[in-house]
Specification:
This protein has 191 residues and is mainly β. 7% of the residues lie in helices and 30% in strands. It has helices at residues 79-84, 157-160, 170-173; strands at 4-5, 14-18, 21-28, 34-41, 55-61, 71-77, 95-98, 108-110, 121-127, 138-144. The strands form three sheets. It has a four-stranded antiparallel beta sheet with strand order 1-5-10-7, with no helix packed on it. The N and C termini lie far apart (70 Å).
Length: 191
């Protein structure tokens, strides 16, 4: 999908939060022209400060069959272009994926290889049960573009991936133990 800016800058507008979404109506533009448009930001989770985004991209999912359970999908994004154009932060944390009829953002994980600022950044996105049950194409959105975001509560590799161990995270690496090296010479022959 195309990048869609979220409306012109405005003042004296009306805004409301309803069911996790933020609605903005009317107001006046910088030249004091009155506006009569309505914008909605889905999956805003009630925060009107650091979880608002400037851009939105539509992603169409076309399942080969109806799926009743949660699934993890792969989304490839040219984050290099977005970061270079100033539409995304240089750590790619200012992203939230959203699905219809799902009031919260979707958990995801950005593959560190190739990582952010790549022409082929890979995101693994957890699509919850109930989203793909019809087997018909479904549109999700990738909202992005907010330099205030330094952390993202939806980045959760342990819920997105079937197996995840981060060796950079001391807590996650705790179950792993070093094994003493051995060679064939160390083995005793049994007769």
């Amino acid at each position: 999908g195309m990048d869609t800016p979220i409306g012109p800058r405005r003042f004296e507008h009306t805004s409301a939060v309803y069911d996790g979404d933020i609605y903005i109506f009317g107001g006046a533009s910088h030249d004091k022209t009155y506006l009569d448009d309505l914008y909605v930001m889905r999956a805003a989770d009630g925060f009107a400060n650091d979880e608002t985004f400037t851009y939105s991209k539509t992603i169409t999912l076309t399942p080969s069959m109806a799926v009743e359970m949660p699934v993890t999908i792969t989304v490839e994004v040219n984050t290099k272009e977005l970061v270079d154009a100033g539409r995304m932060g240089d750590k790619c944390l200012d992203i939230i994926f959203a699905a219809p009829a799902h009031s919260k953002g979707l958990e995801y994980w950005m593959d560190p290889t190739p990582g952010c600022k790549s022409e082929a950044t890979i995101f693994y996105v957890n699509v919850p049960a109930g989203v793909l049950t019809s087997g018909e194409p479904v549109e999700i959105t990738m909202n992005y573009g907010n330099p205030l975001i330094q952390e993202n509560m939806y980045v959760n590799p342990k819920s997105v991936l079937a197996f995840y161990e981060s060796f950079e995270d001391p807590e996650a690496a705790a179950p792993w133990r070093a094994v003493e090296a051995c060679t064939l010479e160390d083995r005793k022959s049994v007769v």
